[in-house]
Amino acid sequence: MKGAELKHGDLEGLLKGLLEKGVVDCLIVPHRAGKSVSYMLVKDPDKIESSTSAIFAPSFSVNAANLVKGWTIKEKVGIVAKPCEIRAAVELIKLKQLDNESVLLITTDCSGAYTNQVYREHYAEIGDQADSAKIKELEDKGITIREACAICENRLADVGDIIIARGAGEDLVVAGLTEKGEGALTALELSLEDKDLERAAEKEKIAAEAKAKLASLPELNSLDALEEFLQDCIVCKNCRDVCPVCYCKECFFDQPLGDPVGGDLLNLAELRGAIGLPTGQLFYHLTRVYHVSTTCVACGACEDACPKDIPLTRFYPVITQKVQEIFKYEPGKDVDEPLPFTAYEEEELEECLR
């Protein structure tokens, strides 16, 4: 791939250049607000902040892909975000919820992230960046990254149009993964040369650690265990609303059959003799996990949004990963790879049913 070496201090100029050269009409970029990190939509190049303290901040507030879901206007938006967020954006392109020609996907390396609450409370110890050594050191002090990050195998930037990879010290490599990405960097008049960013050994180490963490999590191996796991769910649907790949125009669970009230509740009670309240906890989550079974990128936004602190990472990513393994499909990897449910082949799953 073609890329250029930069310093952290060069990132502000790079992002400003994308706007000044008209490569994109606006940018969604990480934004520091005190000890927290969120996102900002920027059109004026002079409003681009120094990105040094935010772009690699190990904090997760919302999946950036959810912010552009349904971006169907002609203006082109650039998105600077973590791998799981860019992978979600790729899935949205396949789901026709985002136009491939209207986005420039810029992926940054990620070592794992803390919830915004944990990050804010321990900012003095965590700082603006965290590598695996610092994360382990903080873990020994009881300051742990999100469980979704701990089981994630895709922390290195290797998807999207442009990647921003960390090197030693202040060194960075900015490289184009696609023709669109290389064109954007060329427009910035960067001196591009061949770069090898395979990083196979580092990826293997991350994958091994993620698999070990996943294996250590409690299993939901029965209906009773699942019902107990979800017993505190109030069916607030926060997990649905923050999920970047949950996209139905009309959700079944906003309709009378899926969200019964008043007379509908009485009719159900008459039919069954008695019903639990709130209704449909198990039905809701089983329907949702089926809905996102091939497109879930395991970002963990669902767990972060749960007001009852249900560890949904132990449910959604774990189950969807098994479905994706059956279809030999990795969500968000390649924008041209068809979705499994749209490329059905007769008897393709026969071996799984034997």
Characterise this structure.
With about 350 residues, the protein is of the alpha/beta class. The protein folds into two domains: about 1-215, no CATH class; about 225-354, no CATH class. It is about 35% helix and about 15% strand. The chain contains 16 helices and ten strands. The chain has helices spanning about 10-20, 65, 85-95, 115-120, 125, 130-140, 145-150, 180-185, 200-215, 225-230, 240, 265-270, 280-290, 300-305, 315-325, 350-354; strands spanning about 1-5, 25-35, 35-40, 60, 75-80, 105-110, 115, 160-165, 170-175, 195. It has an eight-stranded mixed β-sheet with strand order 3-2-5-6-8-9-1-10. Strands 4-7 form a two-stranded parallel sheet. The longest helix is centred in the middle third of the chain and has 17 residues, at about 200-215. The mean pLDDT is about 90.
Structural class: alpha/beta
Mean pLDDT: 91
Q: What's the total helix number?
A: 16
Order of helices and strands: EHEEEHEHEEHHHHEEHEHHHHHHHH
Euclidean distance between termini CA atoms: 43 Å
Shape: globular
How many structural domains are formed by the residues?
A: 2
Described by strand count, sense and barrel closure, the largest sheet is: 8 strands, mixed
**Integer-rounded radius of gyration:** 21 Å
- Unreliable stretches covering 5 or more consecutive residues: none
Compute the number of strand runs.
10
Q: Estimate the helix proportion, in percent.
A: 25-40%
Output the strand order for the largest sheet.
3-2-5-6-8-9-1-10
Name the beta content range.
5-15%
